[in-house]
Amino acid sequence: MRKNLTKAEILRKKPEISIVFASKVVYRTQGLHLRIVENDLGWSRVLFTTPRMFRGAVARNRARRHVREAYRLIKGQLRGHYDMVFVLYPGLYEFSDRFSQVESLLHRAEAIPQS
Question: What is a single molecular function from GO for this protein (predicted)?
Fold first, then answer.
């Protein structure tokens, strides 16, 4: 499996994003929320977003980059095919913190096996 995120793996269309946000399935950890629904495409798609309260473009983009990289490293372990939305919240988080947040949320969603 390729490790980079292709265009097909990014959730883009508003109706598809609305389906994920309409889902009642939400997993939360401090600084990051995951909304996830199964799809029947044969691959998983993902979206990284922030609420309006996340001020400062540099901090917001760095946080998004960290979570995207953490997901990219973990995506090979996914079992099943999902549409996922990661909602990032502000805080003093390094890459290792964001990686453990992503891993924890995907474990709780039973999207990746326990290590």
Answer: tRNA binding
What count of other Cβ atoms lies within 10 Å of the Cβ of residue 62? 15
CATH classification at residue 49:
3.30.230.10
Structural domain of 20: 10-109
In a domain, 115, yes or no: no
- Is 23 within 8 Å of 35 (Cβ atoms)? yes
For residue 17, what are the contacts with CB-CB under 8 A and spacing of at least 6? 11, 47, 85
**pTM score:** 0.92
| pLDDT tens sequence across 29-69 | 999 999 999 999 999 999 999 999 999 999 999 999 999 99
